[in-house]
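Sharing a chain and its predicted structure for anyone who wants a worked example. Both blocks are below, sequence first, tokens second.
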Amino acid sequence: MRFSVLIILLVGALLAAVPAKAQTFDPKYPVCMHVYGTLMGERMDCLFVSLEQCGMSASGLPASCIVNPYYVGPGPRQRRPHRQ
């Protein structure tokens, strides 16, 4: 009995020690800049509308631009009611 409780507590402690990872991609923008390294901090900035825009921002930084895999695109256009 004690052994099983000890195993359960050990497994729980190991699972609690692993940090949770939140979604790092903003689905509103099609391009993300992945900044890496300890100097600037590892992060994902998803706020670019084109690869060219991202490339200009990433110039000179330890970063690369990627296509956002979670981009949802623009929403459906709302049709205006036809007036008679």
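Comments welcome. The longest strand covers residues 43-48.
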